[in-house]
Amino acid sequence: MIGEGSFGSVYLVKRISDNNLYALKKVKLNGLSEKDKQNALNEIRLLASVQHDNVVSYKESFIDVGSQTICLVMEYAEEGDMLSKIERHYKKGSCFAEYELWSFLI
Hints:
Elements: E1 3-4, E2 8-14, E3 21-28, H1 34-49, E4 58-64, E5 69-75, H2 82-92, H3 98-105
């Protein structure tokens, strides 16, 4: 497990066929309202439609009937997300280098 939220958990997984690492987000279906279920499906549609170098890419999704979860397979961001980068700098009392900021913004 590499993360956890109110609706589910994220796991680091390895695809056996090529040994690539991915993030598997499992969203619990039981206990969700119909509106929350629709929001989860809309999130999947949105993620599947976005293709950009600075956005974690969507690979596939499926429903795990046994655990009653929607599973999203996503690109694994080895260095973490932007929030974790900001938090690391904050804890150290450091700042991003100017070239890093420009690379994020551009």
